[in-house]
Amino acid sequence: MTTVYTTRAKILLLAPMIAWLTAFLLLPYFFIFIQSFLQSDAFGNVVYSFTAESYIKIFSNKLYYFTLFKTLAMSCLVAVLCVILSLPLAYFIAFKVQSESRKTMLYTLIVLPFWVSYIVRAYSWKIILGQFGILNGFLMYTGIVSEPLSFILYSDFATIICLVYIFTPFVAIPIYTAFEQIPKSLVEASKDLGAGSWTTFTRVIIPLALPGIISGATFALVLTMGDFLAPILLGGPNTLFISNIVQNLFGTSNDKPLGSALGIVVLALIVLVLEVSTYFEKKYSSFKSS
Amino acid sequence: MRRIFTTGSAALVLAFIYIPLCAIIWYSFSAESVNSFPIKAYSLEWYKVMASDESLLRAVGNSLRVAFASTAFALLIGVPATFALHKFDFTGKRMVERIVLMPITLPGIVTGVAMLSFFPRIGVELSLLAVGIGHVTFLLAIVVTQLLSRFKRLDPNLEQAAYDLGATPLTAFFTVIIPNIRTAIIGAALLCLVLSMDEIPVTFFLIARDNTLPIEIYGMMRRGITPEVNAISTLIFLATVVILVISLRLMRTSNDKVIK
Amino acid sequence: MRRNFLLSLLAIPAFMLFSCSSEKKDAAASANKPDSLKYKGATLNILCWEGYADEKFTKAFADKYGVTVKGTYFSSSDELVSKLQGGGGASYDIISPSCDVASYIVDAGLVQPIDPTKIAEFNNLSELLRNMSDVKRGNDVFGMPFTWGPDYLVYNADEIKEEPKSWNLFFDPKYKGKISVWDDISNIYLMGQILGFDKTDKAALYNMNEEQLKQVKEKLMKLKPQIRKFWATAGELDNLFKNKEVVAAVGWPITPATLNKQGMNLKAVIPQEGATGWIDRLMITKSSPNKDLAMLYLDFISKPENMAKVAEVTTYSIAHQGAKQFMSPELQELTYINNMTYYHERLNFWQYVKERKKYNELWNEVKSGVQ
C-alpha cells in the first residue's frame, strides 16, 4: 500500500503522546532515580549531595531487605492461591460448559469484578471479618461458635484473603483464555488413549496452558508487590509490606531519597519478575498465538 | 461424582468472588448502624445519609471531573498516536509501545511517588490537576491497547478507497478511520472512565485537599465505618456493571475480548 | 457535524482542567467591599488534627462571611510536615501543628507571621502558652495558642473495672490482642516514660541515646503481641473501641468524648508514670491564598464562645479561660480549665526530635517485627 503520510503528519500524530509520556512519566521515573542517590535532612528537605547511602541502607538494615523478602514471599503465596482458585473455574467454563451463551455469561461474571472498585472490594472483607462482622455473626447465629472469633480481621491472614479475592479475576482471565486455545481434539485424544480426566488435566491441559498460568500468576505477584492499601485496611500489627514502607517514607517519615531508592529496588525486582515470566511464557508456549 | 467435584469447585470459587459483593448490597439496606448478622430491620436510611453527605458528594463531583477530563485528554492524544503506531514502522516503535504500557505493568505506588516527587518541581502543585495528569498517563495505556487491536482488523481497503477518491490523509483519518472505529473508541472511553473513577495508588500521592471518591471512601474506612459506605459501594457497583455491560457490547461489535 | 464533535472533544478537557483550579481566585477580588461581602464564595482550607474543623464551630464563620470552611485531617505530625513540604502547601490556609514540629515548621519557612493585633482576644489567651518561645522569632509571632491535652490511657470501663494505675496494664497477658496504640513515633516517647528515662530530664524522651533506643525497642517488641491494631486516626480508634476489638489504648480526650455520647463507658487516666502531651497552635501557611480570611478565622475561633465549642467537640483543654462561662461544669472539669497547671505538672509535652529519621526508622522496625 502506498503511504501518503508525510513525515510531518507522522510526527504530528505521535508527538503529543510522546511528549506527554516524556514529561509526565519518564522524567518522573528518571527524577526518583536521581533522587535515590541524594540525601535528606532530618525533616526531609532533599539535599543535593550524591551518595549511595540509601542503597547501602536497604541492603544492610534488616528492616528493608527482610520486608522486601517477606513481601515477595507473600506475593508468591497470593499468586499461587489465585492460580489454585482460578484453575477449577476456568476449567469448568472452558471444558464443561457447552452452550456459547452460557460461556459468555460466565466469562462476563469473571471479568466483572475485575472492574469493580478496588476499595469497595477491600471494604467488603472488613465488614465480613470484623469482631461483629458478618462471618462472626453467621457463626454465632448458627451456633458454630459461642464467642466471636477475634483473630481474623487485622492480620496477615485477612490481608492475604483480601488480596487473593481482589486479584483472582486477573489470574482467571488469562488462564481461561489459555484453556480456550487448547484444541478440544487434543483433550479428546488424551481420553481416547485411556487417560482419565485428572491425568488429562495434569498431563495435557496444564502443560499446554502454562503460559496463561504464568502470566496470570505474574499479574497477581506484581500487583501484590505494589499493594499498600490492603495491609493498612486489613493488616494487623505485624503486617507491613514493602510498599507500606515506601508510602511511609514519602508520606510520614519524609525521607524521599530513601523512599526513592526503595521504589527503584522494588521496580528492579518487578522488572526482573516480568522478564523471567516472559521467558518462561515463551518457553512453554506451544501454540503461537497470532 | 467427578462432575460434581468440577462443578462444585467452580461454583465455590464463583461464590467466593460474589458473596462479598452481595453482602455489601444486602447490608446497604440494613436499618442498623453496625453490620451485624442477621439483619433485623431493613430501610433506605443509609442511602438518605449518603445523599446528604456533602463531602461525599463533592468527592463524586471531583472524581467525575477528573475522569471525564482525563479520558478526553487520553483519547485526544492516544487515538492519533495509536493510529500512527499501527500504520507506520519507525525506529524506537517497540520502545514507545513498552513505555506506554509502563504505568499499568509497573506498580502504581512507584509511579505515584515518582510523580509526587517530580510534579511540584515543574510547577504542578499537588491538586486535582496533578491527579488528572497522572490519570491521563495511565489511561493512555488503556486507549492504545484497546484501539491497537481494533486498528489491526480495520479493512485497509477502506482507507485506500478514500485516497483513491481524492481524500487527503487528514480527511481520510477523520471521515473514514475515526467513524469506523467509533464503537471501539466509545468502549475504550467507558473503560477509561471506570478506571479513572477507581484509581487509588497514583491518586493517593497526588491528591491535596480535594478528595476523589475512592480516596474519600478510604478516608471513611479509616475514620470509622458506617453502613453509609455500603450504600455508596452498592451504587458504585451498579454503575460499574451498567458501564461495563455497555462497553462490552460495544467492544464485541469491534473486538473479540476485553484485553488488558 | 463530525468536525463539531471533535472540536467539542477538544474543548471539554481544557474547560474541565481549568475549572479545577478556578475556585480560589475570588478571594483576592475587590478589596473595598466590607468584610461580610469581600470573601463571599471563597474557601478557607484548614489542615488540622481531627475535630479541629468541626461544623459545630466553623459553620457560624462560614455563614457570616459566605465562605466555605473545609477541613482536611492529618494523622501525625510527620504527615503534616510531609504534606506541607511535598508540594501541597498552597492548598491550605491554616494548619494546627503540635509542639513537636511547630518550631521546625517556622524555621523551614512554611508559615508566615500572624498579626496579634487583629485577634481581639489574643491577650486574653493563656499567658503560659503565649509566652512559649518556640513559635516566636524576634518580634514575629507565628502561632496562636489553641488547645492542649494529654496522650491518655483510654480504657473501656465496662471491661476494666478498676482504674489502671500504670501503663503496665498494656503488658498484662489478660489483655493480649486487646490493646491499641497510635501508629506514630510517640510510642517511643511513651516507652521511654515507662522505662523512667524522663525522671530527671523531661527532654530525655526526645533525645534518647543508642542504648535507650535499644531498650525502648525491646519494650515495644514485648508490647506488640498485645496489640490488636495500630490506630492511625482518632476515628479508627473510636471504631476499634466501638466494635470491642480493643479494651485499652493510647488515645486523646476526643475518643471518650465521642464514644460516651454514643452510650459507651470509656474512661481516661494519666497513669503514675505520667503521660506525654501536646500543645497545638494555629498558624497561617506561607503560600495561603486567603491570608486575610485566615486572620479573620483566628480572630473568630479565639472568641470565648467559640473556644467553648471547640472544647465541647474535643474535650481538649483550650487556650481561653474566659470560655468557661459557656461550658457546663462537667466539661470544665474534663478540660481542667479551672486548674491550668494540672496538665503542666503531669504531662511531658512533645518536643522537637532531632533524630527524627532514626525514631521513624525504629518505629518501622517495630512494625515489621525485625530484631
Describe the secondary structure blueprint for this structure.
The complex is a heterotrimer of chains A (290), B (260) and C (371).
Chain A (H helix, E strand, L loop, with lengths): L6 H29 L3 E2 L5 E2 L5 H8 L1 H35 L3 H16 L2 H12 L4 H8 L14 H26 L2 H9 L4 H29 L3 H6 L7 H10 L4 H29 L6
Antiparallel strand pairs in A: 1-2
Chain B lengths: L1 H26 L17 H7 L2 H34 L5 H13 L2 H11 L9 H25 L3 H9 L4 H12 L1 H17 L2 H6 L6 H11 L4 H27 L6
Helix pairs in contact in B: 1-12, 2-12, 3-6, 3-9, 3-11, 4-6, 6-9, 7-8, 9-12
Chain C lengths: L1 H19 L14 H4 L4 E6 L6 H11 L2 E6 L3 H12 L5 E2 L6 H6 L3 E2 L14 H4 L5 E2 L2 E2 L2 E7 L1 E5 L22 E2 L5 H9 L15 H14 L10 H9 L5 E4 L2 H8 L4 E4 L5 E11 L5 H11 L2 H11 L2 E2 L10 H6 L6 H6 E3 L6 H13 L3
Helix pairs in contact in C: 7-8, 8-15, 9-10
Tell me the number of strands of chain B. 0
Element order of chain B: H for helix, E for strand: HHHHHHHHHHHH
Strand content of chain B: under 5%
Question: Which fold does the CATH topology of chain A refer to?
Answer: MetI-like fold
Largest interface, with counts of residues having CB < 8 Å to the other chain, equals: A-B, 90 and 89 residues
* Total of DSSP H or I helical runs spanning 4+ residues of chain B: 12
In the predicted model, the low-confidence regions of chain A spanning at least 5 consecutive residues are none
Largest sheet features of chain A:
2 strands, antiparallel
**How many domains make up the coordinates of chain B?**
2
- Model regions low in confidence, pLDDT < 50 over at least 5 residues of chain B: 255-260
Could you say what the CATH architecture of chain A is? Orthogonal Bundle
The number of distinct β-strands of chain A equals 2
